[in-house]
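#struct-queue
[09:14] JT: dropping the first one here, sequence first, then the structure tokens:
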Amino acid sequence: MRIQKLPVGYSDFKTIIDNKFYYIDKTLFIKEIIDESCNVILLPRPRRFGKTLNLSMLRYFFEKTEKSNGYLFKDLAICRLGEEYMNKQGAYPVIFLTLKDVKEKTWDATYRGIKDLIQNEFLRHKYLKNWTGLEKEEKEYFNKITSLEGSEKDYENSLKTLSLFLERYHNKKVIILLDEYDTPIQSGYLENFYEHIISFMRNFLSGGFKDNTSLEKGVLTGILRVSKESIFSGMNNLAVFTILSSEFNDMFGFTENEVKKLLSDFNLNEKYQDVRRWYNGYNFRGEFIYNPWSILSYIASENKDLKTYWANSSDNKLIEKL
């Protein structure tokens, strides 16, 4: 078989499929999201475990777009399940935010970074701006967000407000995807603006995910498993699936069988035991799961060096406070 390019450093599903990168099929993640009865799902996973890629995949699957993205899923596992699931492809308005790069030293810089991301997401739906279905005050709110002139309260309410606008425009409830929600929280703890970021994120998340009548489904990823009594206070519709849960446990990272096939496809069968010893997968309820960044980086390396390609540098003291 022709050896495909490896998607080292790529986290956009469409880019990977369009450029025919090697892709380990995780599209049954879509089925599990659809089948999950709780409408807000939190999935804490280690760093470099494919979280952004999976949420990107959800976006391209669910989002209603002018040009269909259905072709991206041709011949993948979700497509083989038939119309029961594929009839949801391209059926919903989607809000997609990733906070993975909001790693600042101060609250002001963090707030600016979050405002920029919210602004960009509103601009992605700029067709709403001139829609006659928005009241004058709502258009003024939209303009304040996109001109970065809104108050802190305006930005705290932005998930809920944008989802309301989208539901009214599309006559369809909204899917909200929030990737690496806790990255700025970690910075806040380590750089001494924790109380400010926690206050903002509590209100931001509450507006978007708690008692939001415009919400069809919400999916959040992060590093931390936080207490439902703190930042997610009162969010009774939240289901948390950690690495100790049986659900979703093979949807992030690579399973042993996936690593074996990957090595085989790149003519590295004889390296399996070395890779297994060196990269020693995480044990998720009896299933060994490997860090994709480490495995892909090893295979892509010119000399096939067995070395550390990733190290966890986070401060676990943050978990105690959360």
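[09:21] JT: and here's the second one, same format:
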Amino acid sequence: MIPKSEYIRKLIHLSNLIIPISYYYVFQDKRFFLISLFFLVLIFLAIDLFREKNKYIKIFFNLFFNKMMRKHELNGALTGASWVMISAFFTILIFPKNIAILSLIFMSIGDTVAGLAGRRIGKLKIGEKTVEGFVFGFLACAIISYNYKLIPFSISIYGSLVGMIFEVLPLPLDDNLKIPLSSASIMYVIESYLI
């Protein structure tokens, strides 16, 4: 059974869709959006750095987020929220808009679906992840790819696959960094050099 706190964490993770949606509909100027994200990165990093040192921030975190946080986050590592901001900043900085948007959608939806499916029905383990989580995460990303019209499906399907492969690989990097950067990289290479 999945605890309620995990569902809340995943809902918060889905709210990260505001980043690619804002980039598509609101921020036409990439530089202005990057400056905004840079300040958000600084704010989230400051909160992470001071949550153990400042008693008010610590009380706030314990009150609202303690049950949702992973063990490594409780032990002082950066939270998933900080990694989302860092990842969004670098993904948007490095890659063309159409690719950055889709890879950030993969991060929000693919990772959420993979995590919930893995916890709910996962039996075949790959480190701390599951084959079932990988399959459902890939299917979710594939459906998104099929309906995303700014990149041909023949390219975006590889982004779906690579993003979810990196999600399941036991690499010492946060999923919020691995998924968008890996999926964006493969889509960029295919779009730029192979097609």
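[09:30] RK: nice, looked through the second one.
[09:31] RK: The two ends are 45 Å apart (CA to CA).
[09:31] JT: good to know. The chain has one domain: 4-190.
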